[in-house]
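Lecture 7 notes: from sequence to structure.

We start with a single chain of 760 residues. Read the sequence below before looking at the structure.
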Amino acid sequence: MDWGRLRALQYAQIVATSRVRMVVHAACALLVMWLYAGVAPAWIIGLFAAVLMGTLVLALRSDKEFSTDGQIRVGREQVLRRARTTGAVALAWCVPVAGFAVFGGDAERASTGLVLAVLILGSTLALGAAPMATAVFGGITGLAAIATFAWFGQFGAAMSMVVLLVAVAYGVTSVAHIHITASLAQAGVAEQSEVVSLLLREFEENEADWLWQIDLNRRIRGASPRFAFALGKPIEEVEGMPFLELISGEAWETGQFPPSLHDLADRLKRRESFSNLLVKVSIGREHRWWELSGTPILDNSGAYAGIRGVGSDVTEQRESSEKIAYLARYDTLTALPNRLMLTEALGDALRYAEQWRTRCAFLMIDLDRFKSVNDSLGHLVGDKLLAQVSARLKALMGESELCGRLGGDEFAIVIRDASDRGSLERVARSVIARLSQPYEVDHHTLYVGASVGSAIGPRDGNTVEELMRNADLALYRAKDDGGNEHRSYEPSLHANAEERRQLEFALRQALEKSEIELVYQPVVDSRTEAVVSFEALVRWNSAHHGPVSPGKFVPIAEDTRLIVPIGTWVLEQACREATRWPEHVRVAVNVSPEQLFEPDFASAVVRALTASGLDARRLELEVTESIFLRDPSVARASLEQVMALGCTVALDDFGIGYSSLGYLRKISFSTIKVDRSFVQGAAQNSAESLAIIRAVVAMADSLEMTTTAEGVESAEEAELIRKLGCTKIQGYYFGRPMQADDALKLFRRRRADVEERLRA
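Now the structure, written as tokens:
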């Protein structure tokens, strides 16, 4: 490909738009100078005008270099010179962007940024075919604008400029791709025309490139210069040499010919025609691929005189085809077989099992806690971790086992012969044990586990699709059971999956059908036993399925992100109901991680408070530690926004997950909730549970937080919790989750009791 000619086609657009670009730059410069007239010193405005004028003159002269009569090629040095002049113009524009900004206000800086955005977008349209010029201008001026906005605290404007640069980069890439594709096509047509002309001339001279001819003894006759060049020898050395000797390399001595050369030798020996025969040849010590066609030659008497043919070197195309075939069946990150190759291997294993009355197996593997590693340490660390996982899996494989990557953090193993029933369990256990060992990645020690689901063929499925689906169901059960487990497929899993599918379908319509409702469980002061708040709990009474347990439908809602609209409705409904209670009573609402990571979560809280009229101090949001595993910075920012409104935040289920004192140091929680498992353990005199509750109470007191003990079901448990120092108690002993009207009656009953005592 003649890249000089291609660059000339690209940079022709610069010449065509030169005058328009100069006018636009001048107009934008006048606008900026008008903005800062009387604001910035006159000398710096004049300096900007002079510098810009000088750089524009340089750019105009550089443009003329590309329009020289007769020039059809552009060199790299010319391209670099044009980039330098563009850089000079960009630096000139940095004067008002950074220099004028000191004297102006937010409005002037924003207006200058807008003018700059117009110039960058105009550059994209005018210079899109020559992306280097646009990249230089947009990169220099854009970075200057971003730095200036950031320096003066205009972070919104800085982010807008970042978004603009990303959009411009994408647009320039697209425009350049389209232009270069068209230019390549145009250049290709011209090149093909030249090649055809050359071939025709050489055919007329009987020395056409890649014309080859052999005689009765299969020796080269009438070799053309291009054929000799392809053989890597002068014409005089080629003429009269055996054709097969020239293209077989060392194999001529050893007799170990590639199959394609055997095929060619047979066709030459049989003196038959052939077309587009792919042959692996050896030129010196280099292996190449040739595509040959040949036709027998007859002399004047009609007797066979040899074979004449046409050939071409297709090594690059062959290597590209092999690479495409490799990429189609192997994962680029881990070099393991991908989903396509795994399905092909599973299909072969199924056919083998049916033919020989044996068993095969398919294991699906999902990494536990991989998402938290990916989210907290980044995709680069995650990719390196996946590479180490794949190496460990590969080392575990036996002769009849093939492992591969399905995608993401999912892997799979095909066991061709699983007749030994214990072999499947051994493979699964060895995978879990090996993948659960610590990893060292970029100075990080990482721990991830593995869950495995398996299906046996043809017992659990006669097709690849059935086996993969059933192994996936088993894997889902393993994850459901806490992870780091192996579960085999059972027919009952289908029923569970179908039930889940039906529940998901019904849940999508539950809000519209008013099937979702709230109940409220009281939280009392541990000393006075007066109600201080209610926790709003969601319930689903399905018209089709009846009452559905929250433990069953909440995970479905979170997986499908239906928890976001449901959570918003719960928040609004709870705030409305709380306005009917005494002013000292709060309402606590559980917040899912999916809700918290919504960009408008704080806005949803504001809307709920505004619509209900509830004081923000009476709303408490309950979150679990799992929110910090996904993206701690986003979680913290969202919680700080709602706390700034006046809402309080409680940390629920503290101690049963990935507890970290760092959470308590970074976020000012109002309450720590002690899980019911510790309360029950303390009631059974468990030393561990007692120690944990005492430690949580002491820590909360030192951090000026309150503690709520959950799951208190008897007077004895209440007294124990009171002695341990918890400030609030929640549980069946003081009230089960109740309807809104029943919650309201508690206050009316207490008010009546107080009035009766006062009368007495």
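The mean pLDDT is 84. Keep this in mind for problem set 3.
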